[in-house]
Amino acid sequence: MNPLLSFLASIRWQDIVDVVFNSYILFRLYVIFRGTNVIRVLAGLALLWVFQRMTVALGLIVTSWAMQGIITGAALIIIIVFRNEIRNVLQAKNLRALLWGVPQKSSRTPIDALVEGVYELARKRIGALIVLPGKEGLEDAIQGGTPWGGLVSKEMLVSIFWNGNPVHDGAAVIQGDRVTSVGAILPLSTRDDLPQYYGTRHRAAAGLAERTDALVIVVSEERCKVVAVQNDTVTRVDDNLRLRQLLADHLGLGGQDTAGVRRERRELLVAAVISVLCMGSIWFSFAKGMETLTSIEVPLEYMNRDAKMQIVSTSVNTVRLHLSGSSALINTFRPDQVKAKLDLSKAIDGQNVFTLTAANIVVPPGLRLNRIEPPEVQVSLDLPQSKHLPVQVNWVGTLPAGLILESATVIPDQVMVAGPQRALDQIATLYTEKINLSELQGSGRLTVKLALNPADVKLAGDFKREVQVSYTIGKRKE
Fold first, then answer.
1. Taking each helix axis from N to C terminus, what angle separates 13-33 and 257-289, rounded to the nearest 10 degrees?
2. What's the structural domain count of the chain?
3. Which of 140, 305, 373, 471 could cross-link to 408 by cystine, CB 3.0-4.6 Å?
4. Rounded CA separation 188/141 (Å)
5. What range does the domain containing 442 cover?
6. pTM to 2 decimals?
7. CATH number where 454 lies
8. Pair 123, 244: CB distance under 8 Å
9. Rounded CA gap, 215 and 226, in Å?
10. Same domain, 19 and 32
11. pLDDT along the chain (478 residues), means of 10
């Protein structure tokens, strides 16, 4: 059989469910954590695992051992280093979102209201510090803050940063269409390339942008200028169109909603395909890497024999099968799940030689047949015949002293037998079971059985196996 077809035939439905289930879990992890540093590190670990399997295949023992240790340690480091991002993602999701929902990128932030509020603050010379988070969490970067939850509007922003408000010196964090917290304290930047006239707000914006992917907007109360800070870039925003563009790019609303949806769908499709390929590779790696060999002896069943013929002899009654498969399957399968069958529908009268192949063997899915011992089986068939044979008493021993067997009669004196022609040709007389003469004291009648030899010879017609033996014993004359 083609090796590919043999491999496909060995796949169980449980293996398919196993791969699909774990592929879906991997895909869900990507959907939930996409865009965060967690998914990037996981991708790096996956690449390390591929290299580790390659080193195993090449027989690089030390390299394989070292990479396996790195992967094990890195998995623990991920949980420790990115615990906050993992917590944020899981806390923000309900059960439905975790299992099958596809979170959409935030598109509800009212850009126009935000732009109007920023320039209203600048016009009124009110300093402000506004944070729009990206894909990374801010919990490790900011401190303090008062939960707010108000809708974003020009009036809301002006009231938050009004000088009489106790939280006006801190930063306002905006997520979606809500101001989630106010009065937050941001880390200060230690950069020495910032202009000397930048105050605390600007350095706080730069400090947060250095640590996260957030977009921070700064409104200067002295110069009435608006500055946007993201990553290491500080951008002076001179008009509302420029600010609107920066916000749209950061929020993924650059005027290409349809293209963005198509791009996101392609991204998810590619992620699903890669998840299936990864899990299929892992399953194949475990199935092959943990392959175990075993052998089992099973009876050979002869099937579909022509009713007119009888089996005279066979070279074997059992065969030894050498199987391979994963250790889990080898340890759990039952011997009665393995069958060896030989089809005699095409057998002819006489000697037949059959070659045993995988078609004659039934094994549980997931196990592979490597070898059959013996590879050939000889089966001798014959057409049954009938024949009349005389019956003769099988006397053994001697009569007591002074006695003589004068006569003996068998009823019936001949019987009809049936069996293979070769067996009948070798039989001329049918004997009874042994009768010991030393146990006889006088004339009488006995009921004895016929000795059918060979075993494939049977009585035919209405003849019974028991016959009557009448005998006469007299005294020996001197």
1. 140
2. 4
3. 471
4. 10
5. 385-475
6. 0.42
7. 2.170.120.40
8. no
9. 13
10. yes
11. 61 80 84 71 78 77 81 75 65 60 58 89 90 81 84 89 87 87 88 83 89 90 88 87 86 58 78 85 65 83 85 88 77 83 87 90 82 91 84 88 87 86 81 88 89 80 87 82
